[in-house]
Amino acid sequence: MNDLNKIFKALADKSRLRIVKMLQQKDLCVCEITAVLGLATSTVSNHLSILKNAGIIGDMKDGKWVEHHLVTETNNHFLNGLLPLLSFWLNGEEQVLADKDKINTVNREELCGR
């Protein structure tokens, strides 16, 4: 029950849901997510930590950036059942559509330089 509770708590926040929907489009670094959400980097990092702790996202180092991605394979049967459903939820929401457009215009090299 603790695993399921962590997952639902992680998804109970609007910003974290927006992050999940963005990561369905492509892997993103914290500076890109920060630019889309318009939140402080520390706030975005905290949201990412919560999603990672729940097993919803993972990350991988790419040069000076850490790319965040949705987990596609997991041993958690709750996530295995829930993640496919998330790909269909909220797709028509105005904020999700705006975020989708915005992630196509953000450029990590311009945002944080290389």
Biggest beta sheet attributes: 3 strands, antiparallel
User: What string gives the helices and strands in order?
Assistant: HHEHHEEHHH
- Classify the beta-strand content into a percent band: 5-15%
Structural class, by secondary structure, is alpha+beta
**CATH topology value:** Arc Repressor Mutant, subunit A
Give the spatial strand order of the biggest sheet.
1-3-2
Q: How many structural domains in the coordinates?
A: 1
Number of helices, where a helix is a run of at least 4 consecutive DSSP H or I residues: 7
Residues in helices, as a percent range:
55-70%
Terminal CA distance: 43 Å
**CATH hierarchy class name:** Mainly Alpha
Number of strands: 3
Q: Can you put this structure into words, describing what you see?
A:
- The chain is an alpha+beta fold.
- Helix content is 60%, strand content 12%.
- The protein contains 7 helices and 3 strands; from the N terminus they run H-H-E-H-H-E-E-H-H-H.
- A 3-stranded antiparallel sheet has the order 1-3-2.
- It is globular and about 40 Å long.
